């Protein structure tokens, strides 16, 4: 599929679990117990089933039938399941690329009869890719639609429509019906997009212009004729004849369509289209406008997508009755493959795609787009452990063991890897040697050297709460193969879903599901019979306080069609209170008190209730109101990666930060917001109907600073709030004057002037966080300053400081009173607190590559007592600390914000992530190396190409990608690792420190949804008015290196206290906290005149967002 011409490639890791039936800790280590049910499938031999099919491929280098000349040669073929003869048993259709298609009648008990020759399902067949079914002529019998492609001319790849003759034979009539599409078609779906009562059709196509660079590709497709041929196509049914309305409908766009799914994705009653696109063309999410047009909303609805989009499924993975979207890519789960098959995405290529061509953010990982309501999605593939499944094709979401949770099956494998980096270099050299005219014999030798590796398909058990476990080894499904299309159905009518898989160069798989035999759970099956065969009816179950909804749809996964009977697993539940079927017309029918293990049939003609279902009004906790405050943060241009290529993320885009205080003594809370370099900070006074910016010329003068945190503090003891602003950033040279902190004195009216103090102005250090403290109980405020890095030398840290206030002069007293704090590390947050309520103020500090520092004040000196609660071993990328009292016991608790689990980096106590820093090649530049543990040794996280860009000596020492992949860190970097600056992290989860008294804390992991984002800031409030403090938390990190997915969750979260020892998460659809940008900080402010609580959220390089708390 991906030829040696292709510029961009993929990679990296996957965790696997294989526990037998037992109670274990969940895969995210959230501290929750989950019951793991043994999945059990049994492979049925073809001699027993008579299901005899093999998609055999033979290359021919003298034609285009090979991977060098046809990128999609090994893309495989699909399988479909449907009842073609109306006998109540589901039959199986296999597509063949070079071999014939086959149709097998289900004779019962998983025995099949091959009727392919009699059925005439190979008329006009050339290279078949995908299959779907529909009763196209509405005669009550299912017809077969086969999509074609292959290394052929247009006229040889017409799609095929086999009309059912009701006698187990079919007649091909695609031309007659107007469906003989001549694109490189992969899959199609029939659906009534305009609600006119007949079936229309969407055909997903690959593209003839593979191998072009992005600029040439898009330039080439400015020609409308070429564009149309290279687009997916929408056909409207006009009295039985299908008319191409692609351009008129809004679908005329370039495509490399591999995956297709039609669904009412946004739940507005109109069917939408999702196309997963290969290569650099982003996926398309065509939302139905309800007027026969569609709009691609992929950039508006999602923040990122997969790069090499393969198969796609749309289903609810967390039982919240919202459709989620699962798209596969080709990221390797194995270190060796990830390093040998990976091509780097560099900043220049990324900027070309995202900025110059205005394409979406794309990453070489699977995507699991969690539907969070309001037409917004968040990719949670990393936190769920589903981001890397190797070169994957079909991803099917269904309840495999009837336990009420939808599991995931992924097909895997690629027949020949043309992306092997060493082979690509060899090919390039040979082409140069022979000036492009490579002899056929040499070409054949190279072709046969292309790596080929069978991989097992994967099975993930959904244990709820965004928690998936790789249960492949326990499932009976772990057989290595080159698998492509897959489908499921209850082929033996025993109440569980069986699986059929189409393989390249190997027999097809049939797996019998043994869930019913093993009594793992009850079920109910609902067959919907609409006025058209593809009715997309929505089936809702209501029982035991639960509401669950599924949609009847056929086309899912990759090139394939599943049985569209709606199947619900029920666990041990025995009675369903209500089963409701909602049809596209808005009519619905309900049945009541249904016993488990029932098979129900709903006919649309029986839906007599013409009243529309009453939609629940969703009154959210907050409503957005961006009119009250107008501040836009403007980030300065600086490429951190130019000198530090291997940085995990930018260090120059940390702000802005908000601080509140009454600066003019009018009894109202005002706001300070920091600016980026060359942007003045701003103070906004609270007025009756808005916040009004006041002019402070000193901020204009000091715009050359990069503002970090700020602190309102009465420095001169005149009863008004002065201002301390921390300076930081990565764009300055070490010891630059622009790194000194600033003190601004208030005249009592909100007008500030600069005041320099000797010691503070002498410390030109890149700082981050500040807190006031009276550590010696002398009645004046001292200052704690948490500093970060030596500029452009990440992760080498600067010393942090405690300034003692001596008669208004601040003096560095750190070495005397808190020596361990001085060398603590990169500090992101420090807060003053009294965690033991002894009247002496303590402090807590956290940062990147640091532990959680708990500093006890012993009457004026500090000791880090983190070891008493084992917090000295909790090394994370900690970002924030929010003081609270979760259980009202009078002891202060602390929410410690970390990176969360939705990032590609993984770490644990057993396998920490490590970083080393030094001038490894001794060329006068600072180098960093990120490393993780593989097969008992530490290996580089980043690939050979980008590592060599940072340190050119690597290409001389390590000649091949294969050698690099098999080298340890010490093999590559030598003994200098031992003397380098090094740190490690073993925890990415955000936590609650529950205060147990006596200077001890219990670490409690925050809920799974809170781990889907980095928590950079938080504030407390009793949102549900139950007498217990809750939290609002925000955080994004957009500026990751280009191969690492952004942490771009489009929401903040509200955490409601459980009144004991943790929180429940109020999701965005309930809070209304949908955010548009790179959120960095939040403050809750009481607006006196409006008598409202406002959440002000500061956004990096964007407009500050403001939300009003709705009154109850």
Walkthrough of the structure:
With about 1100 residues, the protein is mostly beta strands. Helices cover about 10% and strands about 35% of the residues. Strand 5 and strand 6 form a beta hairpin. It is globular and about 100 Å long.
How would you describe this structure in keywords?
1112 residues, 12% helix, 23 helices, mainly beta, five-stranded antiparallel beta sheet, disordered N terminus, 35% strand
Blueprint of the fold:
Elements: E1 22-25, E2 33-36, E3 41-43, H1 46-49, E4 79-82, E5 91-94, E6 102-108, E7 111-114, H2 116-119, E8 128-134, E9 143-148, E10 160-164, E11 170-172, H3 174-177, E12 185-191, E13 200-205, H4 214-220, H5 224-229, E14 233-238, E15 241-244, H6 246-249, E16 257-263, E17 272-277, E18 284-288, E19 294-296, H7 298-301, E20 305-306, E21 312-315, E22 324-327, H8 335-340, H9 347-356, E23 362-363, E24 367-371, E25 377-379, E26 392-398, E27 407-412, H10 421-433, H11 440-449, E28 455-456, E29 458-462, E30 468-470, H12 472-475, E31 480-481, E32 483-489, E33 498-503, E34 509-513, H13 515-518, E35 522-529, E36 538-543, E37 546-551, E38 555-556, E39 560-561, E40 566-571, E41 575-582, E42 588-595, E43 598-603, E44 622-624, E45 658-661, E46 670-673, E47 682-686, E48 691-694, H14 697-701, E49 707-713, E50 722-727, E51 742-746, E52 752-755, H15 758-762, E53 767-773, E54 782-787, E55 801-806, E56 809-812, H16 814-817, H17 819-822, E57 826-833, E58 842-850, E59 853-857, E60 862-864, E61 876-877, E62 880-884, E63 893-897, ...
Parallel strand pairs: 20-23, 35-43
Antiparallel strand pairs: 1-2, 3-34, 4-5, 5-6, 6-7, 8-9, 9-10, 10-11, 12-13, 13-14, 14-15, 16-17, 17-18, 18-19, 21-22, 22-24, 24-25, 26-27, 27-29, 28-31, 29-30, 32-33, 33-34, 35-40, 36-37, 36-41, 38-39, 41-42, 44-76, 45-46, 46-47, 47-48, 49-50, 50-51, 51-52, 53-54, 54-55, 55-56, 57-58, 58-59, ...
